[in-house]
């Protein structure tokens, strides 16, 4: 059973969600702490008690976005398991994250701000690059096992996840399209895996 959040934790989360909403509408520079406080339904003093600056509030948004990725725990390559099943499992877990509404809101804010202020999002880019390396480790293990003979470990992880993002991330983030329905998710995941295996298998 989930433990109810304390009042102070609920206020902190309300502030983060209000910041996400305001940053999406107005951008980082044009959003004031006053506006965030009003949207969150708390006093400006409460906002500053939790986040001494707007930069720290934005850092919290990036932190939560990173945690969304971190929750996708790396599963090591299993030579005893069918390759296609392992790839399907990997992409289904990524699909669940990409179609989560809260994750998409976080991503919209982070991407928009990285365009205007690349240095502000540099830490996130560095972290995500390290996270992508886990897919490289998986692919190299599959190659060492005699599978995926044509796979380029530096290229194929991007090919694999890029196909997924074409349908299940970028249209939602940039064009506000709705998440894919269950049937379309299945179609995209399975087609992506099969096309990948046809190329690299």
UniProtKB/TrEMBL annotation:
Gene3D superfamilies hit by this protein: Homeodomain-like, Tetracycline Repressor, domain 2
Record Pfam families: TetR_C_7, TetR_N
GO molecular function: DNA-binding transcription factor activity; transcription cis-regulatory region binding
Assigned keywords, A-Z: DNA-binding, Repressor, Transcription, Transcription regulation
Tree of life domain: Bacteria
Residues in the signal sequence: none
InterPro entries assigned to the protein according to its UniProt record, in alphabetical order: DNA-bd_HTH_TetR-type_CS (IPR023772), Homeodomain-like_sf (IPR009057), HTH-type_TetR-like_transc_reg (IPR050109), HTH_TetR (IPR001647), Tet_transcr_reg_TetR-rel_C_sf (IPR036271), TetR_C_Proteobacteria (IPR039536)
Coiled-coil stretches noted in the UniProt entry, renumbered to this chain: none
DNA-binding region, residues: 32-51
Annotated protein name in UniProt: TetR family transcriptional regulator
Residues annotated as domain HTH tetR-type: 9-69
């Amino acid at each position: 059973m989930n433990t109810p959040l304390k009042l102070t934790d609920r206020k902190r989360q309300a502030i983060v969600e209000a910041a996400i909403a305001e940053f999406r509408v107005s951008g980082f520079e044009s959003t004031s702490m006053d506006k965030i406080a009003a949207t969150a339904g708390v006093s400006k003093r409460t906002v500053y008690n939790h986040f001494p600056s707007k930069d720290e509030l934005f850092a919290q948004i990036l932190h939560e976005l990173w945690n969304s990725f971190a929750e996708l725990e790396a599963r090591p390559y299993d030579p005893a398991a069918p390759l296609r099943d392992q790839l399907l499992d990997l992409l289904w877990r990524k699909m669940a994250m990409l179609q989560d509404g809260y994750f998409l809101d976080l991503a919209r804010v982070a991407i928009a701000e990285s365009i205007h202020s690349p240095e502000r999002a540099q830490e996130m880019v560095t972290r995500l690059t390290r996270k992508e390396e886990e897919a490289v480790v998986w692919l190299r293990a599959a190659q060492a096992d005699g599978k995926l003979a044509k796979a380029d470990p530096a290229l194929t992880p991007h090919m694999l996840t890029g196909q997924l993002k074409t349908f299940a991330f970028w249209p939602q983030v940039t064009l506000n399209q709705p998440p894919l329905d269950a049937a379309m998710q299945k179609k995209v995941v399975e087609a992506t895996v099969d096309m990948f295996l046809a190329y690299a298998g």
